[in-house]
Amino acid sequence: MRLVSCEIGGEHAYGMLIGDRIARLDMLPGAAPDLKSYLEVAHAAGWPPVEVEADIPLDRVRLLPPIPNPDKVICVATNFREPAREGQPEPEYPLVFTRFANSFTGHEWPLIKPDHSEKYDFEGELAVVIGKRGRKISADAAMEYVAGYCCLNDGSVRDWQKHSSQFTPGKNFYRSGSFGPWLVTADEVPDPGALTLRTRVNGEIKQQIGMDRMIFDIAWLIAYFSTFTELVPGDVIATGTPSGFGSSRTPPEFLSIGDEIEVEIAGIGTLHNIVGGEQPSG
């Protein structure tokens, strides 16, 4: 099942994508107020079937991030075994940082390149969305807490990221990242390790890796994060990016206004955005 959050006539809505049409789940009697709340109910009930007509053409809506209002977004860096890391010891623990909800935009919305930087970068990733509440979850039980998966672009403002050892400023510029285009429920992805990630900039592949190359896999990350924080429905875990992003290339390749970025994960979808500029203030 593919679930979306979207704008219809200027109003926020959510629903199920069937082919190229949306069935509005928010119009059902007693519907949850948003997709985050729907996940908690539907996941607990084992994704019960719903009877609702898919009557909204996909091309008539604007897709939002599947979870526009996550309680938290937890991100991982340095999480792949790959040639770029040959000769380096594997980390004992992942490098972890967080992003704010408003640092993301949705599929086909412009990414906003900050005026304050000429080092705006792309990072394609697999995002995991949590479906039920849990604390101190064991790795053996962790996958039971996954609602589904999305594509994610962890757009990074590298000079601000490098102001100190803390990543927060460079990872949280307004609408500098994106995720979507929709959430694919976990029952449609029996083995996320079999997925392959590709990131293209202006049609050229810049990143490509299999999810089986993760150092810290999804179950490990859920167990680790749930040790220090309660995971709740709608929480997003960004599982890390491979080499090939702009600042890892020789010479570096940063993004400019008008550049086109696609994050593709076969079986999940393709997240597409074009880089835009900041709007004048006032």
UniProtKB/TrEMBL annotation:
One of its GO terms (biological process) is carboxylic acid metabolic process. GO terms for molecular function: isomerase activity; metal ion binding. It comes from the Bacteria. Keywords: Metal-binding. Residues 72-275 form the Fumarylacetoacetase-like C-terminal domain. Belongs to the FAH family. This is 2-keto-4-pentenoate hydratase/2-oxohepta-3-ene-1,7-dioic acid hydratase (Catechol pathway). It comes from Rhizorhabdus histidinilytica.
